[in-house]
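Why YtxH domain-containing protein? Reviewers of the renewal asked for a concrete example.
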Amino acid sequence: MTEENQESIKEEENHFQSFSDAVHQASDDAKEKAREAAPKLKEALASAAFDTAYNVAYGAVFAGTFAHELLPQTLKDGIQKGADAGKAAARKAKTKAEDAFTHPPKSAAITPAVIELPQSP
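Here is what the prediction returned.
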């Protein structure tokens, strides 16, 4: 090997070493910045979640209360009676379904099916 070739190889090794050092330094810097940013990001996300939950709850309660105060009593009574009737129908359907699954009807006995095939001439 000539001296010029050795210098060229050494220069290439230095480039690779400096590139490797740069990658390691960038990795270390990124980890440090992420550790610094994580608490701030967690705080921002928690604050956003709180604000969202608060606004949804406020909007739902405000709308319900406003509608309740705005509606005439006869309409409120109709809504209440309809809700009660719906609950009663749901309970009745539930009971009927439970009875059907726990006590099958006696006429539901399994009978073999008879299939008649036409005779060929």
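Helices lie at 3-70, 73-102. This is the kind of structural detail the renewal will allow us to pursue systematically.
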